[in-house]
């Protein structure tokens, strides 16, 4: 047992000496593995970070979220929204009264506008909603209050500012109680929403103001159609039921025949998350495939250099065999050299990949998430490449004829 360990240690030592004897060649051989492992880790970190960011943004939409879009049609296999809106505020009231699985429902109406406060002005999105909207979006008011149902019914000229707009117009604070003008219409600021951050498309959710939808219709856009309906189910389990109830109700109201294409479309929070996750997974797989090719190229480099090493050291192999070394000892020695190259390269690649991920997060501002499993997988794959691509040169060395090897010049 002890003699076996000593023999193994001696073989490993001989293999390491051979690597150190050609430092530059060893470094260049490891370079492919280093780049491959670093790319796998960095790309996975960027992909995981993007996926986490998308999940956070989708969660910020609200709870049990359902969106109903008007005028959906199909073009080249994709559902798009065109033409005049098919939805009206009456549809919202019908959903509220006749869909028992729906907790909250609000019309949505969006337009762009310049918000002016004194000498300050800010271009932003004006969103028309009613009082349920703040519960659907699970969005709290940071200062003041949200507008009331009475103000919605009366088309009151009141506005709740997003955090970005409030900071732009009132950098010293005190927005609540002041008056701002949107398209020359005066509005009293009744509240400021708490900070929400960016959405999954990268847009700043805080860069908007919320106004009663009745006021937007009468004062800002001059139409009686709404742009969308936002709703939330009473529980996550009731989301599919709520969607079925809404679909049946709207089909009845629009007199859509059985099997006919409805002039609206619906998306749940789960569907949006599933689609976003699928896109994220596809992107991650693409990036990982590119990085895996780098690892494969690195493995081919190891095989190439090991074959050269076997040729250069043919006489040395012959001498070892002549003084008693078995074929398996030679095979083990060259295999150790290949594995050492890939393992050391993998370790350097791990350090480089983690560092690159941190640099990307700091300098580029991209969200990154380093998964220990991806680090272990990349490192293990690098070691496996050393065994796979090092076996053929090692086997070739172990099968050399001692006499012929000693005659090799």
What does this protein look like?
The chain is α+β, with helices and mostly antiparallel strands. Helix content is 56%, strand content 19%. The strands form two sheets. It has a six-stranded mixed barrel. Strands 2-3 form a two-stranded antiparallel ribbon. β4 (102-117) and β5 (120-129) form a beta hairpin. The longest helix has 44 residues, at 269-312. The chain is elongated and about 105 Å long.
Shape: elongated
Question: How many beta-strand elements?
Answer: 12
From the alpha carbons, calculate the radius of gyration and give it in angstroms: 33 Å
Kindly report the oligomeric state of this protein: single chain
Class based on secondary structure composition and strand pairing: alpha+beta
Residue ranges: pLDDT <50 for 5 or more in a row? 74-78
**Strand content bin:** 15-25%
What is the number of helical segments per DSSP (H or I, 4+ residues)?
13
Report how far the terminal alpha carbons are from each other. Answer: 37 Å
Series of H and E elements: HHEEEHEEHEHEHEEEHEHEHHHHH
Which strand order do you get reading across the main beta sheet?
Answer: 4-5-10-7-9-8
Average per-residue pLDDT, rounded, comes to 83
The helix content is 55-70%
The description of the largest β-sheet is:
6 strands, mixed, barrel
Brief write-up:
This protein is of the alpha+beta class and 409 residues long. 56% of the residues lie in helices and 19% in strands. The longest helix is centred in the C-terminal third of the chain and has 44 residues.
């Amino acid at each position: 047992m002890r003699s076996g360990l000593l023999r193994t240690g001696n073989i490993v030592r001989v293999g390491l000496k051979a690597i150190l004897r050609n430092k530059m060649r060893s470094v260049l051989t490891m370079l492919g593995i280093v780049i491959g492992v670093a790319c796998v880790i960095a790309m996975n970190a960027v992909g995981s970070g993007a996926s986490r960011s998308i999940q956070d943004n989708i969660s910020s939409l609200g709870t049990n979220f359902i969106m109903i879009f008007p005028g959906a049609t199909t073009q080249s296999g994709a559902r798009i929204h065109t033409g005049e809106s098919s939805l009206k505020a009456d549809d919202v009231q019908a959903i509220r009264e006749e869909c028992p699985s729906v907790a909250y429902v609000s019309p949505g109406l969006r337009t762009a506008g310049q918000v002016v406060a004194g000498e300050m002005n800010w271009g932003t999105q004006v969103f028309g909603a009613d009082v349920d909207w703040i519960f659907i979006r699970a969005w709290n008011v940071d200062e003041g209050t949200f507008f009331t149902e009475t103000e919605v019914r009366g088309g009151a000229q009141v506005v709740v500012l997003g955090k970005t707009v409030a900071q732009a117009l009132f950098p010293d604070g005190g927005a609540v109680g002041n008056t701002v003008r949107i398209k020359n219409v005066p509005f009293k600021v009744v509240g400021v929403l708490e900070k929400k951050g960016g959405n999954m498309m990268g847009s700043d959710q805080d860069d908007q103001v919320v106004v009663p939808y009745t006021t937007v219709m009468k004062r800002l856009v001059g139409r009686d159609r709404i742009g969308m309906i936002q709703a939330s189910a009473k529980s996550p389990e009731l989301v599919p039921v709520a969607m079925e109830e809404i679909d049946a109700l709207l089909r009845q109201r629009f007199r859509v025949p059985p099997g006919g294409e409805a002039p609206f479309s619906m998306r749940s929070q789960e569907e949006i998350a599933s689609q976003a996750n699928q896109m994220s997974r596809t992107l991650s797989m693409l990036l990982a495939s590119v990085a895996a090719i780098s690892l494969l190229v690195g493995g081919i480099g190891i095989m190439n250099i090991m074959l050269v090493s076997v040729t250069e050291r043919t006489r040395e192999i012959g001498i070892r065999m002549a003084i008693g070394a078995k074929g398996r000892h030679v095979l083990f020695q060259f295999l150790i050299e290949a594995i050492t190259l890939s393992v050391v390269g993998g370790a350097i690649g791990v350090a480089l990949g983690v560092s690159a991920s941190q640099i990307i997060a700091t300098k580029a501002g991209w969200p990154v998430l380093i998964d220990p499993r991806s680090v272990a997988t990349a490192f293990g794959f690098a070691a496996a490449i050393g065994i796979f691509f090092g076996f053929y040169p090692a086997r070739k060395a172990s099968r050399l004829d001692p006499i012929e090897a000693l005659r090799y010049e």
